Amino acid sequence: MKAWPDGRRGALSVTFDNLGEAAEIQLGADPDPGEHESVTRSLPLVLEALERHGVTATFFVEGLNAERYPDVLRGIDGAGHEVAYHAWCHEQWGELDPSEESENLRRGREAMGRLGLEPRGFRPPGGELSEHSLDLLAETGFAYVSPAGEEAGEEASAGTAAVLPFRWPEVDAFHVLPVFEDRRRELLGDAEAGGLEAIRAHLLGAVRRAAEQGGYAAIVLHNGMIETEDELVDELLAEAADRAEEGELWLARCDQVAAWLSS
Predict the structure, then answer these.
(1) Which residues pair with 14 in a beta bridge?
(2) DSSP string, 31-79
(3) How many other β-carbons are positioned within 10 Å of the β-carbon of residue 186?
(4) 218 with 251: CB under 8 angstroms?
(5) pLDDT digit string (tens) for 160-196?
(6) C-alpha angle with apex 206: 203 to 243, nearest 5 degrees?
(7) pLDDT in tens, 80-131
């Protein structure tokens, strides 16, 4: 791993996954379009918290939102945050064939492009890439990918994509939702949901690990959970901002980290 800017020990990206009703549609629900609380109620609280702490974040959003919430995506970008791609309608990436992957990536970039946005990064729902994903991402013009994994760096493919992984225990929903029971048992040795205390321990631990031990960390939040996590999110952002102010941590959006790794 190359040194981070200004000699900082570690790098951290604050990221948010999912927006609107896309993930619910993928699960078979039929929510009213354009009125999802994660957008109308939660997102303003998230943006206020980020502004309060002077933190810019990366929002991985489904391409469907370019049609249902175009002004919201422009607003996220206008506030200095990165709008990145999270599949068209939260399709589980590891279940798609190469032609479906290619069409999904193309459709999302084109829809966001019509808003004047150029997504540079992609995070696969479910965290898994196929053996074709890196080639397809490079062909479609993405500069980096953020799958589940351990070490940040570069991978040679049809082009060179920066790889900015996240760790499952550093995802807030991992400690809450029943769907992660098997993964919690595998990674933590206990399938029980740890709730807010587990979220706090693992995500705050990621901030401190990056600042004190170096390397790269991406913490993954969901804006739909902000009202149960508001004090915790404030604590995380304050810790990250303080560590950055002290010169220990480079607090950067994913596209900024990818550009540094690829330079």
Answers:
(1) 219
(2) PPTT--HIIIIIHHHHHHHHHHHT---EEEE-TTHHHH-HHHHHHHHHT
(3) 11
(4) no
(5) 578 999 999 999 999 999 999 999 999 999 999 999 9
(6) 105
(7) 999 999 999 999 999 999 999 999 999 999 999 999 999 999 999 999 999 9
Confidence band, pLDDT 50/70/90 cuts, at residue 158: very low
The first and second tokens of residue 152, run together, are 């940040």
Angle between helices 43-53 and 70-78 (to 10 degrees): 10
Which helix (H) or strand (E) segment is 251 a member of?
strand 249-251
Q: How many residues does the chain have?
A: 263
At residue 238, the pLDDT reads 98
Which residues are registered as beta bridge partners of 13? 218
Per the structure block, which two tokens stand in for 65?
Answer: 């939102």
Question: What are the extents of the domains in the chain?
Answer: 5-262
In the block, tokens 């690990």 appear at 209
d(Cα 137, Cα 159) in Å, to the nearest integer? Answer: 9
- Mapped onto helix, strand or coil, the DSSP state of residue 197 is helix
CB 125 within 8 A of CB 93: yes
User: Which residue has 């607090």 as its token pair?
Assistant: 251
DSSP state of 223: G
Q: With respect to CATH, is domain 5-262 assigned 3.40.30.10?
A: no
In this prediction, residue 157 carries a pLDDT of 41
Under a CB-based contact definition with an 8 Å cutoff, are residues 31 and 73 in contact? no
